[in-house]
UniProtKB/TrEMBL annotation, chain A:
Function recorded in the entry: Catalyzes quinol oxidation with the concomitant reduction of oxygen to water.
Family: Belongs to the cytochrome c oxidase bacterial subunit 4 family.
Organism of origin: Paraliobacillus ryukyuensis
GO molecular function, one term: proton transmembrane transporter activity
Membrane topology recorded in Swiss-Prot or TrEMBL: Multi-pass membrane protein
Protein name: Quinol oxidase subunit 4
Taxonomy of the source species: Bacteria, Bacillati, Bacillota, Bacilli, Bacillales
A biological-process GO annotation: electron transport coupled proton transport
UniProtKB keywords: Cell membrane, Membrane, Oxidoreductase, Transmembrane, Transmembrane helix
UniProtKB/TrEMBL annotation, chain B:
Name recorded for this polypeptide: Quinol oxidase subunit 3
Organism: Paraliobacillus ryukyuensis
InterPro entries: Cyt_c/ubiquinol_Oxase_su3, Cyt_c_oxidase-like_su3, Cyt_c_oxidase_su3-like_sf, Cyt_c_oxidase_su3_a-hlx, QoxC, Ubiquinol_oxase_su3_dom
Keyword DNA-binding in record: no
Enzyme Commission number, as recorded: 1.10.3.-
Positions of transmembrane segments: 21-43, 63-81, 93-111, 131-159, 171-194
Reaction catalyzed: 2 a quinol + O2 = 2 a quinone + 2 H2O
GO terms classed as biological process: aerobic electron transport chain; ATP synthesis coupled electron transport
Predominant cellular place of this UniProt entry's protein: membrane
Cellular component terms (Gene Ontology): plasma membrane
Length: 98, 198
């Protein structure tokens, strides 16, 4: 069995995750942006970190079913966004009018 | 480099390929399951009547400790898989045990955190925030706890049978599960804790 390379992918993924986590905490706790702007920033950082996990740790693109995996996960994420954004939209807007 | 280009052991049979694909589809369903819990939390987080609000009970330091424990365990699980593909059973098991210890540390801190919240006057029955919070966090914590048991059983199997096409596939699937729980935690960290502390 030939020795594989140093697991560079995983080390880079781990360091990126740490940096993104600390960055999100700093933006949330130490900056003076309006809170909805902060939410957009840390939300984007969370999505990036999830992508790091999916690509660098979970090898989503690997294997013969790599493309099917991506379609499946993208569709699930679409459903998740519809469920979360839809619930917030329907249940928290327009309360003042009633 | 040779083993980089050849098919990894866990993909070596048709059955293994199907099992791994099937597990990805299960993870898709898990994403939807957690999305319903996140949706409930997002809608109900403001209903804090009769109990403390997020900012009064969340402690950033404790949350960061939990985050780094789980993050590091995801990394060591990746290293264990890397060693499995090198066919290095001892190193693989060492990283797996480290992963389990980090996972157990996470569960320990989370239970302590829940006890702290109950002492501060927030239980599942207190208000809608409490119900949504403990359901979301509890479902994630239960997943991690089940994952620990699952990995433990696989360790026994790998000790007995070694790295075969079957055990390699099972370990690959459990590693997907473990990384997935870290992905869910990233969103809990951001949309529950950081949002609540802001």
């Amino acid at each position: 069995m030939l020795k594989r390379q140093f697991p560079l992918n995983h080390v880079v993924g781990f360091l990126l995750s740490i940096v993104l986590t600390i960055l999100a905490a700093l933006v949330a706790m130490q900056t003076d942006f309006a809170s909805n702007i902060k939410m957009w920033i840390i939300g984007t950082l969370a999505v990036f970190q999830a992508l790091v996990q999916l690509i660098m740790f979970m090898h989503i693109t690997e294997g013969k079913s790599g493309q099917i995996n991506i379609i499946n996960i993208v569709y699930s994420v679409f459903l998740a966004v519809v469920i979360v954004a839809g619930s917030i939209w329907i249940l928290t807007t327009g309360h003042a009018a009633h | 480099m040779a083993s980089h280009t050849s098919t990894p052991l866990e993909y070596s049979t048709k059955q293994n390929e199907m099992n791994i694909l099937g597990f990805w589809i299960f993870l898709g369903a898990e994403i939807v399951l957690f999305s319903t819990l996140f949706a409930s939390y997002a809608v109900l987080e403001g209903s804090t009547v009769g109990g403390p609000a997020q900012g009064e009970i969340f402690v950033l330091k404790d949350v960061l400790i939990e985050t780094f424990l789980l993050l590091t365990s995801s990394f060591t699980m990746g290293l264990a898989l890397h060693q499995m593909r090198d066919n290095n059973k001892t190193a693989m098991l060492v990283w797996t045990v480290i992963t389990l210890l980090l996972g157990a540390g996470f569960v320990y801190f989370e239970i302590n955190e829940f006890i702290h919240y109950v002492h501060e006057g927030l239980t599942m029955q207190t208000n809608a925030f409490g119900s949504a919070f403990f359901t979301l966090l509890g479902t994630h914590g239960l997943h991690v706890s089940l994952g620990i048991g699952w990995v433990l059983m696989l360790i026994i199997q790998i000790l007995r049978r070694g790295i075969t096409a079957v055990t390699a596939r099972k370990f690959f699937i459990v590693s997907l599960y473990w990384h997935f729980l870290d992905v869910v935690w990233i969103f809990i960290f951001t949309f529950v804790y950081l949002k609540g502390l802001m």
